[in-house]
Each structure stands twice: as structure tokens, then as C-alpha cells.
Write a structure and sequence with these properties.
This protein has helices spanning 2-17, 19-26, 50-61, 73-87, 102-115, 142-164, 196-217, 242-250, 258-270, 297-311; strands at 41-45, 65-70, 92-96, 121-124, 168-173, 223-229, 281-283, 286-287. It has 316 residues and is an alpha/beta fold.
């Protein structure tokens, strides 16, 4: 036992000594564009914390009018106040949005459309991870309801404004774990079998498929769309898993910071010349490969139709 503890201690010591080199390797790409956003309007979900907050900070720094759309308005106001002070941009606004409740999504969209005549960038950033089995206000399994259906509905409700403001972009955060996901149409809500890890993976696959199908339907509109893997980031997303919280603490020197995690979202929102890559999946600020399931056009189209049915909407 003492030998094992000694080896473990030595290994961890080695990791921490070499941490700067390892961190540099895992830090990933950086958004290099100098594009400024004066007069542009941006909506970011879940921007009261983590990657979304850093994304909002950078877009605000570039002059955009930024809407932080989040469930916790008090936390959102605190983030907005910090960003306004940091960027000297007073146009950082907070609006209530609960992606687990379609009434809240519709209320947010209605208020935003009444308030703003333009929308140039929509970043579907918010998400939940590893939740015990639960359902949203509308009866959807939580990962599916928040990560996929909530953003699906929000994008639909704001799409005409995006088209009117073209060129415009929709960026949806997915994850590398989409490779372990599967769209189980026979048990989409996890009522027959539920594993919270796989439920998260399934929802992230849904994000990639949504982006793929959305790009196909938006051809010629001037609105383009991208899916993003931000990397393994030190954030609050793992809060529902004690084990992951422990591992995140242990290996925090090797994880991406929230600033680093925001870089690929920023790249897809801002970089010039990305229009031909609409519908693609990005990691470390470059297009990367997706799982075979994420390239299945029939699954993407079927998921689109099923999502419309579940939400009671039409979207041709």
C-alpha cells in the first residue's frame, strides 16, 4: 500500500512539475481575427458564467450589444456588471431565459424581438451535464430538453431576425463526447433506460445533427451555423457529478481555462471566410471530424421532424 501511495505521489508530483508544458499543449487554438462589432447585436445563452461569460466579455470588448440570456438573473447581472466595467461597454444586457421551460423561451424571444430590430450572432452556449433523471417543465428528459430542444426552439423563434440581419451566424456548443452518443428514437426521453453520462452524449450528438440540418435549410439566406467543441474546461458544468468535481480539482492545472474554452466559439462567431463551412463541427478553432452518426443525413432530418413534433411547431 505504501509503495502504491509513493508511486501515486511521485506521478502527481511529476504532473504538476510538467504542468506548464502540458497546459500549453492542451490550451488549444486562439481566435485570431480582429473583427470589430460596433452596431452588431449578440445573444448568448448561459453567459452568466463559464465559457459563455468569457465569450460575452470578448464580444463586448469588440463593441457588440450583448444579451446575456440566463436562468439566474441575479448572477447574470453580476456578470454583466463585471463585463461592463472590464470592457467599458455599457451595452451588456441581461434577460431571463430558462431553457427547461418553453414558456420562458417564448417569453424571452417575444421580448427580444420587440426590443431589437437586428440580431447578428446567436450563440447557443448554455447546457446541463450528468443530471440525475428528471424532466423539464414540458416533460422532456432534462439533457434533451435543455441542451437540444430548448436551443432548437430558441433558434426557430429568432431565425427571421437573423435572416433580416444577414450576414448572421448561429453557433451551438456541442462536445467531443458526441462520438459516444446515439439518437435512440425508440427511447428518446430515456424512460426505458437512463444513464446520465450517455444522456449527455446523446444530447451533444443532437447538437451536431441540428447544426448539420440547419445549415442545409439555411442555404442562400446569408445565415450560417457551426457546432463547437470547446475542449475540457474548468467550469461549473460538472457540478452534478461528485466524481468529476473531484477529478476536475485534481487535474485543474491541465484543463482549459474558460478564456481558452471560449476561443472556438469566438472563432466560429467572428472569423472571416467561414461561410463555405456552414454546418461543420469545430474544435481548437479549426474544422475537425465528427462521428459517423453525426454525418447521417437521414438521422438529422428525422431528429429535426421529431423535435418539431415534440415542441408543437412547424419549421420547414
Amino acid at each position: 500500500m505504501l509503495v502504491v501511495l509513493g508511486l501515486l505521489t511521485s506521478f502527481l508530483s511529476f504532473l504538476y512539475v510538467t504542468a506548464p508544458s502540458i497546459r500549453k499543449f492542451f490550451a488549444g487554438g486562439v481566435c485570431r481575427t480582429n473583427v470589430q462589432l460596433s452596431g452588431k447585436v449578440v445573444v448568448i445563452t448561459g453567459a452568466n458564467t463559464g465559457i459563455g461569460k468569457e465569450t460575452a466579455r470578448e464580444l463586448s470588448r469588440r463593441g457588440a450589444r450583448v444579451y446575456i440570456a440566463c436562468r439566474d438573473v441575479l448572477k447574470g447581472e453580476s456578470a454583466a456588471s463585471e463585463i461592463r466595467a472590464d470592457t467599458k461597454n455599457s451595452q451588456v444586457l441581461v434577460r431571463k431565459l430558462d431553457l427547461s421551460d418553453t414558456k420562458s423561451i417564448r417569453a424571452f424571444a417575444e421580448g427580444f424581438l420587440a426590443e431589437e430590430k437586428q440580431l447578428h450572432i446567436l450563440i447557443n452556449n448554455a447546457g446541463v451535464m450528468l443530471c440525475p433523471y428528471s424532466k423539464t417543465a414540458d416533460g422532456f428528459e432534462t439533457h434533451l430538453g435543455v441542451n437540444h430542444l430548448g436551443h432548437f426552439l430558441l433558434t426557430r423563434l429568432l431565425l427571421e431576425r437573423l435572416k433580416e440581419s444577414a450576414p448572421a451566424r448561429v453557433v451551438t456548443l456541442s462536445s467531443v463526447v458526441h462520438h459516444a452518443g446515439k439518437i435512440r428514437f425508440h427511447d428518446l426521453q430515456g424512460e426505458k433506460y437512463y444513464n446520465r453520462g450517455f444522456a449527455y452524449c446523446h444530447s451533444k450528438l443532437a447538437n451536431v445533427l441540428f447544426t448539420r440540418e440547419l445549415a442545409k435549410r439555411l442555404k442562400g439566406t446569408g445565415v450560417t451555423t457551426y457546432a463547437v467543441h470547446p475542449g475540457i474546461v474548468r467550469s461549473e458544468l460538472v457540478r452534478h457529478s461528485f466524481l468529476l468535481c473531484l477529478l476536475w480539482r485534481l487535474f485543474s492545472p491541465f484543463l482549459k481555462t474558460t478564456w481558452e474554452g471560449a476561443q472556438t466559439s469566438l472563432h466560429c462567431a467572428l472569423a472571416e471566410g467561414l461561410e463555405p463551412l456552414s454546418g461543420k463541427y469545430f474544435s481548437d478553432c479549426k474544422k475537425t471530424w465528427v462521428s459517423p452518426r453525426a454525418r447521417n443525413n437521414k438521422t438529422a432530418e428525422r431528429l429535426w421532424n421529431v423535435s418539431c413534433e415534440l415542441l408543437g411547431i412547424q419549421w420547414e
